[in-house]
Design brief:
- The protein has helices at about 15-25, 65-80, 95-105, 105-115, 145-175, 205-215; strands spanning about 5-10, 35-40, 45-50, 55-60, 85, 90, 120-125, 185, 195-200, 225-230.
- The protein is of the alpha+beta class and about 240 residues long.
- The chain contains six helices and ten strands, in the order βαβββαββααβαββαβ.
- The protein is globular and about 65 Å long.
- Strands 1, 2, 3, 4, 5 and 6 form a six-stranded antiparallel β-sheet that branches.
Amino acid sequence: MPTYVLGVSRRRDLPRLMTHMTAESGPARRCSPADVVRWAGRDHVWWITRGDLTAAVVRALQGPPQPVDHARILAAIHRRICVVPMRYGTAGRDDEAVGGMLEEWSRDLLRSLDRLEGTCELGVRIALAHQPASERVARPAGLSPTDYLAWRRTEYRREDDLGRRAREVIQRVTDAAEGLYFQRRCLPASAPALVRLSFLVERSGVESFRRRVGAFDLQKTAHRYTLLGPWPPYSFA
């Protein structure tokens, strides 16, 4: 049966998680190298341990858990202990294969856990202010070579303008958050006028980050923004 890996933590932290699970979800069996527990009354999560590492996994013949369930379980783990999220759909053919993965990746995973201990991810999503010059114009049919070149120049100017404004906004938000994050990532966006940023923040600094960035007035430039998280550090694992 395929074994899907949700995330990896340190073995030493697992008893602390079990204590909270027992309090929140009813009796849970004592942790062993591979033990099943019932999560929040619905999810069966197995823990596979090798050396200093333990992996939270689910077993499913019908494929990986739904993305929303994958994220929900990881978030519940992250609230209590440090976890390195694994790419959605990561799987071994069985428990032994997952154990082998932990052994093979042990050095990198332990380094990641050291780096991510006590952190979380916060997101900033910014919709750039609407400007007529930034609207994409569909290529008209039957253009002459001269008209096509003119259309392409217009498109290049539009793309340059969006890129310039995006860079300005990224710099302003980054400056506003200075000193409150360890790392920053620019994430792919679904539209050219959308900017997505993720920040790796110390858990104890979440409210300070929200206040600082929330007080930063992008509205005066007509940009709209949303603060998201905290989440497990997906973008920094």
